[in-house]
Design goal:
The complex is a heterodimer of chains A (347) and B (313). With 347 residues, chain A is an alpha/beta fold. Chain A contains 13 helices and twelve strands. Chain A folds into two domains: 221 residues, P-loop containing nucleotide triphosphate hydrolases (Rossmann fold); 105 residues, no CATH class. In chain A, the strands form two sheets. Chain A has an eight-stranded mixed sheet with strand order 6-7-8-3-9-10-12-11, with helices on both faces. In chain A, strands 2-1-4-5 form a four-stranded antiparallel sheet, covered by helices on one side. Chain A is globular, with a radius of gyration of 21 Å. The two termini of chain A are 23 Å apart. In chain B, 36% of the residues lie in helices and 24% in strands. Classes of the chains: A alpha/beta (347), B alpha/beta (313). At the A-B interface, helix 8, helix 9, helix 10 and helix 11 of A face helix 5, helix 6, helix 7, helix 9 and helix 10 of B. Chain A: It is a peripheral membrane protein. Chain A: It is found in: Cell membrane. Chain A: This is Oligopeptide transport system ATP-binding protein.
Chain lengths: 347, 313
């Protein structure tokens, strides 16, 4: 698999009045050509900060990339000047944001917002850019694109607005598309349409997608691979089947069992106890240890490395150490495992 | 399990906005249903379908345009003396979606929770008031140290717990929860839902649970109502609704939910709903009809027979 983007040992801190918040503490991942990588985790786990770092969108005044590299086509984006980044942002790497109401300019006609990146990056004339913009509006499924081109964002519904945001992001056929909770603000039926649209467009222009969300249902729908983040680190990464049917990290277990499936009956939902770690004073050992009922002594003392489960599946938990005791994952997870084995045999 | 004793009867409830103007909105358009004592009734639908308006009209945050809401046989919207209104307000409480916006940032948690206690004069002394607050905090999984803090010092899940404690403070019988978990993280959602279920068991509460997250609604609800453009299109026991959705809109809504199961997702076929499919003529009487005991669908007489035949299979 050809790697298009590599993030290596990324550390990012925010300087606040109360001290240094270590939001990202050593994140590594690759993005392959044409795939969708989903990053999941709760708020504060660092998924949006990672994506903003790739886009150079972190506030300059109080954030700092302490170490690490973001490699894209041989260039280290982490060290690129803002000027050089402007040539990449919106052209090779673009982004879709969560709330289509705040990510569009309410005082600008939609058409102008779409031709902006086209004129800037592809050096087309205004007329040619307009033609291209109408093509894209049509591509993302907006009826009457010529009329819609001349309208303002408030004249669009939420789902249509998100289509406009997608149109802007895709205007220059980017190689990497970062979607930060693109459907969280939308209704389920609209969400389904947008996800279908994104998948169809991905095939058409062969882009790679980083999809950030906390909705595991959406992940199961769109992702090829999944990275689970907790406390500023990736704690588990694998193909979508591996993470959903054979999860290894206790945090992933908790996430998966805390969501009811349609056949969950009257039993109590598994709730991860406690609250996320305070990254102002990050714990010495595994950040999840205080909420982890399987935690061992070493979890409190030393951060676990990434253990290999298969060629594509890695997890950072001491439970995978050869000397660790065998533990039984929660029932909901075991049920999934049996399902997975059944699937394998079926094939 | 829920009884069959009716706590609330909603009859032909209508809530229109901008009445008589060109931009009249029929947010809730003639809906009728009952809520039984001790049950959780889930209400789902897309944004703008009128589910929140229904909840708000039931609790009298809006004055209904038409129809009535009977609580224990007494009309909620009828003319009432101040004392009657106060008594009614005590029995019915609400939990809101955004715990950040629904807690006064300038009030201490103890005062937020005790506001209802003060209004209804439920505490005999300052000490009694504080004891009640502490007890409520403990009920929702917080502790007494939290009483003297302000809302901004809490996480989202904790704030929603405060919202729940405030609702419980006046010992209500019926709670309307308007998207109580939508603003929370997945791992925290489970905590709040478990808490709500536990409280229901202990205190015999009745819930109207408004949400758009359908897997959570199925988990918490005994019965579920589906709304579409101000109308209730289907109402059925939770399992029945998911296993045998009858109305084409319900089918479309259910087929749109992604589940955390990659294999299911690969095979999921989404159905789309087009209201034209009904092809109602002007003399068709379209109303909620009972297809099977407890399972209601909005349909015409012709569709009713069709659906019934379909169900029998």
């Amino acid at each position: 698999m050809e790697k298009i983007l590599e993030v290596k040992d990324l550390h990012i801190s925010f300087h606040t009045f109360s001290g240094e918040v270590q939001a990202i503490r050593g994140v590594n991942f690759d993005l392959h050509k044409g795939e969708t990588l989903a990053i999941v985790g709760e708020s504060g786990s660092g998924k949006s900060v990672t994506s903003k770092a790739i886009m150079h969108l972190l506030p300059e005044s109080n954030s700092e990339i302490k170490q690490g590299q973001i490699l894209f086509e041989g260039k280290d984006l982490a060290k690129l000047s803002d000027k050089a980044m402007q040539k990449i942002r919106g052209k090779d790497i673009s982004m879709i944001f969560q709330d289509p109401m705040t990510s569009l300019n309410p005082t600008m006609k939609v058409g102008r917002q779409i031709i902006e990146p086209i004129m800037k990056h592809q050096k087309l004339s205004k007329g040619a850019a307009k033609k291209r913009a109408i093509e894209i509006l049509d591509l993302v499924g907006i009826p009457n694109p010529e009329v819609r081109f001349e309208q303002y964002p408030h004249q669009f519904s939420g789902g249509m607005r998100q289509r406009v945001v997608i149109a802007i992001a895709l205007a220059c056929n980017p190689k990497v598309l970062i979607a930060d909770e693109p459907t969280t603000a939308l209704d389920v039926t609209i969400q389904a349409q947008i996800l279908e649209l994104m998948k169809a467009l991905q095939k058409k222009i062969d882009t790679s997608i980083i999809f950030i969300t906390h909705d595991l249902g959406v992940v199961a729908n769109v992702a090829d691979r999944v990275a689970v983040m907790y406390g500023g680190k990736i704690v588990e990464v694998g193909t979508v089947d591996e993470v959903f049917y054979n999860p290894q990290h206790p945090y992933t277990w908790g996430l998966i069992s805390s969501m009811p499936t349609l056949d969950t009956e009257d039993e109590e939902l598994y709730a991860i106890p406690g609250t996320p770690p305070d990254l102002l004073h990050p714990p010495k050992g595994d950040a999840f240890a205080p909420r982890n009922r399987y935690a061992m002594k070493i979890d409190l003392e030393k951060q676990p490395p990434m253990f290999k489960v298969s060629d594509t599946h890695y997890a950072a938990t001491w439970l995978l150490h050869p000397e660790a005791p065998k533990v039984e994952p929660p029932e909901a997870v075991q049920k999934r495992k049996r399902q997975f084995l059944g699937l394998k045999e079926g094939n | 399990m829920a009884s069959t004793e009716k706590l609330l009867e909603i009859k032909n409830l209508k809530q229109y906005f901008n009445v008589g103007k060109a931009n009249e909105v029929r947010a809730v358009d003639d809906i009728s249903f009952d809520i039984f004592k001790g049950e959780t009734l889930g209400l789902v639908g897309e944004s703008g379908c009128g589910k929140s308006t229904t909840g708000r009209t039931i609790i009298r945050l809006y004055d209904a345009t038409g129809g009535e809401v009977l609580y224990n046989g007494v009309n909620v919207h009828g003319k009432k003396s101040k004392a009657e209104l106060k008594e009614f307000n005590r029995k019915m409480q609400m939990i809101f979606q955004d715990p950040q916006a629904s807690l006064n940032p300038r009030m201490k948690v103890s005062d937020i929770i005790a506001e209802g206690i003060d209004i209804h004069g439920l505490a005999s002394s300052k000490e009694d008031r504080m004891n009640r607050v502490i007890e409520l905090l403990e009920t929702v999984g917080l502790n007494k140290e939290h009483a003297n803090r302000y809302p901004h010092e809490f996480s989202g899940g904790q704030r929603q717990r405060i919202g729940i404690a405030r609702a419980l403070a006046v010992e209500p019988e019926f709670i309307i929860a308007d998207e109580p978990i939508s603003a929370l993280d997945v791992s925290i959602q489970a905590q709040v839902v478990n808490l709500m279920k536990k409280l229901q068991k202990e205190k015999g509460l009745t819930y109207l649970f408004i949400a758009h997250d359908l897997s959570m609604v199925k988990y918490i609800s005994d019965r579920i109502g589906v709304m579409y453009f101000g109308k209730l299109v289907e109402l059925a026991p939770a399992d029945d609704l998911y296993n045998n959705p009858i109305h084409p809109y319900t089918q479309s809504l259910l087929s749109a939910i992604p589940l955390p199961d990659p294999n299911y997702e690969r095979n999921r076929k989404r159905k789309t709903y087009n209201p034209k499919v009904h092809n109602y003529s002007s003399d068709d009487e379209v109303k909620l009809r009972e297809i099977k005991p407890g399972h209601f669908v909005q349909c015409s007489q012709k569709e009713f027979e069709q659906y019934k035949a379909q169900y029998a299979k």
